[in-house]
Every structure is written in structure tokens, then in C-alpha cells.
Automatic annotation (TrEMBL):
PROSITE patterns: NUDIX, NUDIX_BOX. InterPro entries: MutT-like, Nudix_hydrolase, NUDIX_hydrolase-like_dom_sf, NUDIX_hydrolase_CS, NUDIX_hydrolase_dom. It comes from Saxibacter everestensis. It catalyses: 8-oxo-dGTP + H2O = 8-oxo-dGMP + diphosphate + H(+). This is 8-oxo-dGTP diphosphatase. CDD domains: NUDIX_MutT_NudA_like. It comes from the Bacteria. It is an enzyme of class 3 (hydrolase). Its cofactor is Mg(2+). Belongs to the Nudix hydrolase family. Keywords: DNA damage, DNA repair, DNA replication, Hydrolase, Magnesium, Metal-binding, Mutator protein. Residues 9-144 form the Nudix hydrolase domain.
Amino acid sequence: MTVTDRRRDGVLVVGAAIFRDGRLLAARRSKGRHRGGWELPGGKVEPGESALAALHRELDEELGITVDLGTEVNPSPREAGIPFGWPLPGVGEIRIWTASLTSAQQPQPLEDHDQLRWLDLASAFSVDWLGVDTKIVKTLSDDPELWLP
Ligand SMILES: Nc1nc2c([nH]c(=O)n2[C@H]2C[C@H](O)[C@@H](COP(=O)(O)OP(=O)(O)OP(=O)(O)O)O2)c(=O)[nH]1
């Protein structure tokens, strides 16, 4: 897979929609401005780092897991109007990929999170997602294949 490290102004954040047995992994932030909000795990791309390298690094640091990445989850062209990821107002943008665990691993909230939860489609909106994540999860919920047990 070829991934361009295009970016608009501001910080580039990357995240993973990790599915296991038809459930999506949600993580609750334990500190900072977004404390208590639920997100897709990931973090900021560091200078000189590729987006995908950053994503694998963040998942290892935050959850102690290794993943296989699937496809990028993009906003609908109508909503985005441009071929970038999801706008993070005042921050930059976030790009999201679907992912699966490479083996039978148990993600742990090692840093940045205090709770993890696996959500099926029926409970996908039962947590208080950060603003843009609500839209991302809505897009994910439109693809029933991801949620097959
Ligand atoms: N990781 C992640 N961040 C998100 C999501 N949705 C969302 O608005 N954000 C925002 C919150 C933060 O402003 C920014 C990500 O910063 P971060 O704090 O996770 O990144 P990091 O671990 O590299 O940061 P740092 O504490 O080392 O500075 O993006 C999401 O689904 N996942």
C-alpha cells in the first residue's frame, strides 16, 4: 500500500479503528483537555516520521499491541471537499485506518487512557466520542462488513 504523507497546515494525528470479532475498540482519554472523551487510539505524527510508522508506534506505546492495517477511512467527498483526512478544528487533521490485531493480544491502557471498550454496532454510539470521532464512527457504521462477528 502506498500512502502519501500529505498534510494540511497544523498537526497531523493518526488513529486506528481496530476491529475484533465485529467490535470496535474505543479508548477513554485519562488526561488533558479531552479527559473523559472516547477516541480511536493513536496520536501525533512526529517530525520526520511517516504517518503509518507513527500509528504503529502509538499503538505499541498506548496499548502494547501490533496490528495489521486495512484501508483508510475517509470523509465522504461531499463533506470533505478535499482529499485530506478529518479536520481537527484548531489542531490540524486526523487520518484513520481500519486495523486488526496481528494475534490474540489484549490491549492495555498503558498511557493516555483509563478505560478500553469493545463496541458492537448496536452500542457504537454508547460512549461519549470526541467531536470528530462521532463522524468517523458514523462512517464506519455505514460499512456493515466491518461489524460481522
Ligand atoms: N489519538 C486521537 N486523537 C484524537 C482523536 N480525535 C481527536 O479529536 N483527537 C485529538 C486530541 C488531541 O488534540 C490530538 C491527538 O493528540 P494526542 O495527545 O493523542 O497525541 P500524542 O499522544 O502524540 O500527544 P502528546 O501527548 O505526546 O503531545 O487529536 C482520536 O480519535 N484519536
